[in-house]
Amino acid sequence: MAQLTFIDFSGTAREVQAENGSTVMEAAIKNGIPGIEAECGGACACATCHVYVDDAWTDIVGKPTSMEEDMLDFAYDVRPVSRLSCQLRVSDTLDGLVLRTPERQA
What we know:
By secondary structure, the protein is of the alpha+beta class.
């Protein structure tokens, strides 16, 4: 299990427990995190699970794949720390991960 912290656009933080092997998007949906729509259900086909990875975690999380980068082209307010939460697999390494949700999804 890993603890994840989601911070919404207004600054409200929500901590959730995520099962190893699941995705960050699945943990967000399971815990009712506002701002994560996940319209495609995690197929990397819609960019509605867009998040910003906290600067302290970017090296640990790594860079997006080319497919993910292509989908991020459709996301709102993309930044260098943007990722699709459906592409982030939960593991003990991500315990403490901090993510922010954008003002809106694409």
